[in-house]
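Why do we bother with holo predictions? Because pocket geometry can differ from the apo form. Keep that in mind while you read this record for magnesium ion.
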Amino acid sequence: MNVDKKEIYSSRGGAGGESPKNQNGDKWGESLQSVFELALENQGPERTAKLLEQLAGQLRAAPHPSAGATTPYVNTIPAEQQPAYPGNRDIERRIKSIIRWNAMAMVVKANSTTNVGGHIASFASSATLYEVAQNHFFRGATTDFPGDIVYFQGHAAPGMYARAFLEGRLDERHLQNFRQELAEGGGLSSYPHPYLMPDFWQFPTVSMGLGPIMSLYQARFNRYLQARGLANWKEEPKVWAFLGDGESDEPESLGAITLAARENLDNIIWVVNCNLQRLDGPVRGNGKIIQELEGLFRGAGWNVIKVIWGTQWDEIIARDKSGLLIKRMEECVDGDFQKYVVEPGSYTRKHFFGKYPELLELVNHLTDDQIRKLLRGGHDARKVYAAYKAASEHKGQPTVILAKTVKGYGLGEAGEGKNISHQQKKMNEKELREFRERFKIPISDDVIAETPFYRPAPDSAETKYLLERRQVLGGFVPARKVAPVALNVPKLDCFAEFLKGSNSEISTTTAFGNVLRILLRQKGISRNIVPIIPDEARTFGLDAFFREIGIYSSKGQLYEPVDSNSLLYYHEAKDGQILEEGITEAGSMASFIAAGTSYATHGVPMIPFYIYYSMFGPQRVGDLFWLAGDIRAKGFLLGATSGRTTLNGEGLQHQDGHSLLHASTIPTCLPYDPAFGYELAVIVADGLRRMFVENEDIFYYLSLYNENYSMPPMPAGVEDGILKGLYRFKPGVEGKKIKAHILGSGPIIQSALKAQEILAERYGVSADVWSATGYKLLRSDAIRCQRWNMLHPTEPPKKSYVEDLLAKEQGAFVAVSDNIRTVPDQIAPWVPCGLFTLGTDGFGRSDTRARLRRFFEVDTESTVIATLYALAAKSLVEPQLVEKAIKDLGVNPDKIQPQLV
Ligand SMILES: Cc1ncc(C[n+]2csc(CCOP(=O)(O)OP(=O)(O)O)c2C)c(N)n1
Ligand SMILES: [Mg+2]
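The structure, written out:
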């Protein structure tokens, strides 16, 4: 068959099929076209392709890279440029095979007696990708090196456990109890969870997309630490992130990749396991995920290394002089390639090679079985090694390795390349025997049905080799080693100005700025502070910090800022302290996590203060908040512009009244809703102590608001109450018969304070005002006591803090909040005679604060009415008094209710 060579080359890559001549007809185009034809004629297609590839490489390295360009569907590193393999491939293969077996056996065993699930197919496809790195690249932590930072693909976890078993770090009981963490003696967590296995896993990854984005900001954070002189490393650690090709569809996976190129992060290597499948089926059945990703990463400025074909293909590709083989490789879609895995070799011979009869000659010498076993690049240790080596040595750019593999590799009939592969967790005896034969596992017929684990003896060649390699590379990976820290954190007295209060009216956001400024002056911790802001510093009045401590920029400041004449100019510096992330809450959270885990990752405790629009916190990137708990991050999250009525004029998408509830769901998060500057100071000072002296793995969420009011001095003896979540701020007037209690938080405590006056003056009620700083904390404590009482029914019952505090109080209890009612309702069961709550349930509206507060019924008048109503419900006042107040105070009883359903 005759194929037009021009057609072959124009079909490669993503730039379309037209020749330059047709596209623009100019002289340059014509000249290039004729040189191209000459080269094709004299040098042949292969050499011409290589020359073009070299030129394209130069073009990409030029200042204006051609965005989105793809290269032919072949390995980026040609066979002749491949380095020699440094290891013992035979032994490595045997080790890998045993790991494969144990990883599979863990899942199969766990599912033979339970229904706990697990995955075999993902690790089966990536075993070579991990093993080459384990034997030759991942460097463990030593005294002067923090260790390479590795994000393992979450559902490949069985492979990591299986290796740790061979390394002697886990025993059979652990493997036996895979996904059975509550079994006697403990078990292994399903996925990488530092919270559950704090000595083993460093980085949670299985929520797809979070590993990739965290790895980018971690690599950048490593540079930040170095630039600020906080890292004293023998050499720079590499950040390795392993992700799935399906995972690349998550916006978090790819949404921040330009950061790595912009920052020249040659300390990061991504390995995308392109097994062409995700959970349900092919990732791009009708296209090519590798080509799609290549174009994207190149456009983003990354170095891309494709590892598509294994060594046996080298010779076949070399023998093809027609260019048809590459044409065929390019025209096949991923759905076709998946089919070639599942079907016998005869199918591939007929449908892949047979499309162009010339190609059949290339594989005439191979049996069908040999054709079927032609390896994909990601299963060939030599190809993977070449890619890792090139990636490790590449300078100036991040590298992504796109490795083509087979999902469920080695599972045969049980699930190799099948659409059900991802979910396969069972193997029958026949399949087990086939697996054993294929990977030569020394397990006898009589026990194979029990899928026993297999570990070579300590003095076997395999064990010795594997341990020796890890020793040379500095130790085991993954491993999480944490040394306790003791920062010289300031005592509360450093915040004296807050404790005295101020007559000038300020918001808690401004108060926070003052807290930060004070902390930045404290020698013991000033350098450890990491302010993180997603393009909102001016909104929060924190722009003065730009000048004071500088914005981190690896490039310094290459331009003269437009505001250079002003005192507070936009100051970027190589050793700047602020991480000004731009408009990315996900990226900012990734930075928070990198900084907040630096005590563990690098042994350098850092204190992140991440301040953002509260509405774009957990609601937008809640999974990263959750992960911050899992990874044991420390630090302060500051949800500014909080409050559905306090942030006015911004409406439905900005006015937040529920982040406190989101934050309350995270087990290691302490959410606080301070009303006054001194409360903020008490909480921050104690948080610093708990996290960085007591070494508690917790973090803080603080609501900050933008309403100005005068900040009172701290009443005596309230610190404990502030920290526990509730204290009496202002008792009601004495001498009144009727008693009530109003719990307020944040600026809405002002409604409570004004209601207190009206209730006393006009309705004869003495209402105490309490500041409720932390409903979740009160609730957790109450639940703890209640549970203890339930399980110790005959012992004297324990009383929670809130029960104890309120036990002797008379009258009715009302809570008023700028958040939804569920926030205060958290403590309702433990308030004597119940709690009546006012809150901001429903969508926000833009309007003035006064009107919004009336609309949501959290203003002074509504608080008065609610208190009288709560008293009437207990027959402590007449219902007519409530009706009178409604009239007196001008509240429309038939106004609409903001809550919808
Ligand atoms: C955010 C999120 N969504 C969905 C899932 C469920 N899930 C787990 S693995 C998987 C498929 C993964 O495919 P791919 O990334 O290609 O990895 P492979 O197993 O093929 O290597 C899915 C959908 C998840 N873990 N996280
Ligand atoms: Mg996949």
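The longest strand covers residues 765-772.
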